[in-house]
Write a structure and sequence with these properties.
Blueprint lengths: L10 E6 L5 H28 L11 E2 H8 L3 H13 L3 E6 L5 E6 L5 H5 L4 H9 L1 H10 L17 H4 L38
Parallel strand pairs: 1-4
Antiparallel strand pairs: 1-2, 3-4
């Protein structure tokens, strides 16, 4: 992987490609942070904080802005960004010029069920935490079971409650914000059984 050099004067814009909920923040803290570390987690939240009031797009800012806000060196900032990219929480685009301009697309984390069923993230979390801690965190996301065997489902359907009205069908493509996850890209074969990240 060829690393692109970043200077403090290089600018960036944050674009929100998702809706980040309180549940997402919990997933990031409990499931992603043991893999990516606290600096990458803090960078993710800092980029979200850079968004404007509509939480869609930021102003153009400099990397010096992030470095001073996070009290992070440029090298550690780049490492944190790469970790976010690796687990699919951000995508980075670059326009090279006298002053380079980066665009950081922010994505939601996987849901807890998708995370625990992910063939790589789940194994890395287990390897980094160990069996006891992993099981504690897994139990925090377990759904309680309720036996409905002796109950009848009496839920009303839409058409039982509302009468139909003829009219136009409205279609909106990508102009409405929604929760979006980014794919994790793997370019080379890896041995997931021995894979662990230490920081």
């Amino acid at each position: 992987m060829k690393r692109i050099s970043v200077l403090p004067a290089d600018t960036y814009t944050v674009v929100n490609k998702s809706i980040i909920t309180e549940k997402d923040k919990r997933i990031i803290s409990l499931l992603y942070q043991p893999i990516i570390g606290h600096a990458a987690t803090a960078l993710y939240y800092t980029l979200i904080d850079d968004l404007d009031k509509s939480e869609l797009i930021s102003d153009d800012l400099t990397h010096h802005h992030i470095m001073t806000n996070m009290q992070l060196s440029l090298e550690n900032l780049i490492i944190a960004r790469e970790k976010l990219e690796a687990v699919g929480l951000i995508k980075t685009y670059l326009r090279q010029d006298n002053i380079n301009h980066f665009v950081y697309l922010i994505y939601s984390p996987l849901s807890a069920i998708d995370f625990f069923n992910h063939p790589i993230l789940n194994v890395v979390l287990y390897n980094n935490l160990g069996k006891v801690e992993y099981e504690k965190i897994f139990n925090l996301f377990k759904m309680p079971r309720f036996n409905l065997k002796e109950y009848d489902d009496i839920t009303c359907s839409f058409d039982e409650v509302f009468s139909s009205v003829s009219g136009s069908i409205f279609e909106y493509e990508d102009c409405i914000s929604k929760s979006t996850c980014n794919d994790i890209v793997i370019k080379n074969k890896i041995d997931i059984l021995s894979f662990a990240v230490f920081f």
